[in-house]
Amino acid sequence: MSSKPIVNVEGREFVMEQIFDAPKELVFQAFTEAERLKHWWGPRGWNLSTCKVDLREGGIWHYCMTCEDQAQGEFYGMESWGKGVYREITPGERLVYTDYFSDAEGNETEGMPATEIILEFSEQDGKTKVTSRSIFESEEDLNSTLQMGMEQGIVETWERLGEYVEQQ
């Protein structure tokens, strides 16, 4: 069984780590293959309705999460578009990308903070430790994103990842 995530917020960085009960190769693929991402990306009640991955340096990951849970009230039916631009890829080991809020065409949303994401994957006794470091331009950008519910959303997303990889 996967561990609970450990979260640390310091300065302009949001760091989360978790150990998943799955091989490193599978966990890396879950982060980099559209067909796998569709099974787990997004908080509970949200579905990855659009997902395109061009996994190469300079390539783009463009996606849309749609709220399908009527119990989430005003969020029901809402779409949340995002775009990642890959800067560094070390297969099975490390991903670095800049994450943006975007629209359906992939245009970055002005006034919304961009984030540098560094994901590192390491094997631990047949399981996989993932460390995610989200670096914002300023503490204010990090705080505004936290106020939007980022921590709860990413914790739920990684819970879904744990459930997904354990079923593979």
UniProtKB/TrEMBL annotation:
InterPro entries under this entry? ASHA1/2-like_C
Pfam families assigned:
AHSA1
Ranges of residues in domain Activator of Hsp90 ATPase homologue 1/2-like C-terminal: 21-166
Supply the name of the protein.
Answer: SRPBCC domain-containing protein
Give the organism the record lists.
Paenibacillus brevis
